[in-house]
Structure formats: C-alpha cells, structure tokens
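Consider this today:
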Amino acid sequence: MKKQLIIGAIIASTSHTLWADEYHFNNLLIGKNAIGLGGAFTAVANDLSAIHYNPAGLVYVERGNLASINTFAWERTSFENVFGNGDDFNRDAFSVIPGFFGIKYKVQDWHLGAAFIVKDFSQERSNNSATYNLPATAEIPAPQVQTEFATIDIDNSAYQIQLSGGKALNENWSIGLGLGIQLRSFQTDQSSGAINQVFLSEENVISTGFQATARFSDENWMAEPSVSILYRKEGLSLGAKLSKYYVIDRSHEFVTTIAVSGIDPTTPGVRTAIYDIEEACCKQQFPINLTTGFAYDFNRWQLSADVIHYFDVDQKVENLTQFARNITLDFDAITNYAMGISYRFSDYQSIQFGVFTDNANSSIDLTVPFQRLEVIDLVGLSISYDTKISDFPISFGGYAKFGDGLVRISDTRAVDAAVGVPLYPASDNNDISDASKSSYVAFFSIDF
C-alpha cells in the first residue's frame, strides 16, 4: 500500500513564520498622507505619522492628534500546479486593522510624539482540497480515487509603541530621535495530507493515507532605535532616517503530529505515528534600514520620492533539533522605492497618488535543507483623498500590491525525513513552484 500513499500527495506550504509575511519588509503603509503617496513620506513628514517616518518632521506638525480607523485588508497568495491533478493552492486572508493613533506635545525646544502603530496584522483561514480519479496500473488494476487536502489558520499581529522627538537646529535643519517597542505575535495551525481509495468492488474499498499537522507559536519583543534628519527651504525638503530592530526576547513553540496508514509500522527506520514538541529562543537578526527622501512643493503640486535600503544579514540558519525546520534566516540586501504626487484643491481638499515597491528580502538557496521561501517582488499603487467635514479633517483611500515570483516549499521534506518514507512526491525542480500574490487595503482616517 505504500505506493498508494505517495501517488499525487499534496505539496502544501506548511511553513511557519516569524510574522505573517517574513519575506517582505513593506507589509503595511502607515499614516493617511503617506498611504496616498505610496509611503514616500520621509521628506514630507507633515502629519503625526512623522513619528514613524521621520521624527525630525515633528517640528513642522501643527495638529496634535491623529487616528486611522476602519482599515480593511485582503490578501491572496496562489501556488501554481500544487495538487496532483494540476490545481493551484490558494491562500486568502482578510483583516480589520486598527491602524495608527498618535499625539504630540511640545516641551521647551523639543516636539515630542507618541503613537500606537499596527505594523502588521492578518488573519487567514484557508482550506483547499482536490479529488480526482487515478488510472489503473499493472500493480493496482482496480479503480482509485485520490483526495488531497491542506488547511492553514493564521493569527498574526505586530503592535508597536513609538516614542519620538524632533528639534529644530535652525530655520532649515531639524533632527529627530525615536524608540519603538514592538510585540510580534504569530500563531498558526496547519495540516496537509492525502487519502487514497482503491475500489476492489462496490463492497470492498481499501482506504489508506496520511495526515501531517503542525502548530506554531512565535512571540518576539523587539526594540527599534532610530535617528533622522530633515532639511527644508523654499519648497524643497530632504530627509533621511536610520533604524534597526533588535530582538529583546523570543519564545517559540512547535508541535507536530503525523499519522500514516498503509505502511507496516515494524519496517526499519519508519515511524508511522509521531508527536513532537520543541521550544526555541534563538533570536533572529534584522538588517539596518536607511531611508532617504526628497520632496518639492510648487504651486498646488507636491512631488515626493523615497529610497528605502535594507542591508544584508548573514546569520547562521538554525533549525529545530527534533524536527528539521528553520527558525532563522538570512536577509539579502534590497532596495525599495516609493514615489508620490499630491494636488491641493484648497487648504482642506487634496488628492494623492503613489507607486511603490515591496521586494522580497531573501533568495532561494539550494544548499539550505528544508528551506521554505517566497521570492515574489511586489509593485503597489495607492490613492487617497483629503477633505473636511464639520471642522474635522478626514481622509480615505487605499492601495493595492501585486506580483509574480517563485515559492520553495521543500520543508515538506522534513515530514518525509521524520517518517522515513517519501509521503510527498519527488520533485524534479528542487520543490520550486510559480507563485503570485496580491493584496488590497482600504482606510479611513480623521484628525481631531
């Protein structure tokens, strides 16, 4: 019966993550004006989201309160030709995100700001299956029906308390300092497997199969210090910010169960039933981030552009000891770009457009065993509209990101290695498949 188990078994992504999308740094845009400009806000920094983008801009922020509420996000990731009959495996997530809340006070020469920022948030409930007939063979001449399945439930959040301050050095230059404390919490329950039915007769049906389930819980406390600078003169603005995340504490737990039928449990080197629990506290290293920005105002128009560079991280990839899954990863050096344009109809009415990138931060490395990785570079478009209702400035708009690339899901080989037999079908392309990703975010914001 062993052959029946491996025919057409699903290659499902059962990857665990440090956060919901560890393969990109630009998961969510933050702040009403910045969203409309595609995140090109380092040199603009003219509302309280300067607390996040460039604290040096707090010197020029007049309103002391800002809230972004009712932010809706939807995301789909598709892995092509995953099931044995050629069907795709689709992952969908929908979330309601609190967004950004900030306040500002002036103390002597310093303009101080505090903010609650949702840096990442998603909830995923994905369930995919495929049922199809298998052709009769000389070994198994009876009709066969194969059912493959995969489920993924994810609850992810990244909340940051940001304290920042800006001070004017003279009429053109200002500096900023910031410190963020972030809690990243990630939990997921995932399952994949296959059931094979052999119809020897209407009354005699033999069923075999397997199921691999996993539960991951990963919690990270992180600190993000930053320093920034801003220059403004006659409509021209130049800004820069340097920051880096440091993991203060990490708690990671992994629980897996695997059950296999149709294989003799006395076979040497084979385990047909597995239950493993493992904990880890090794800390992921994160890259230095340098962002530079340019903005220029003329007549009713404003142009802005940001270059966001992340330096590489060469960290030893560490695996769980009992079940071979990596819990740290390297980061490539990457650069993202953002450009925005704004047109002011009046003092309280304006419209913004933006375009930006969200490039993958790692690359597939065939020398890393059981590596699971998405390498999908994304391009985004954004729009927002500012107006005023009952003396309250409000903004609404949204953005979309989309892209194609590759996904490597060979961590399923860790299941094969643990059981001792190849449950998932052999791959002639190093477990690399085509993939696509798209996400859509709508928001509403109010100053008060």
About this structure: The longest helix spans residues 412-419. Residues 393 and 447 are 5 Å apart (CA to CA).
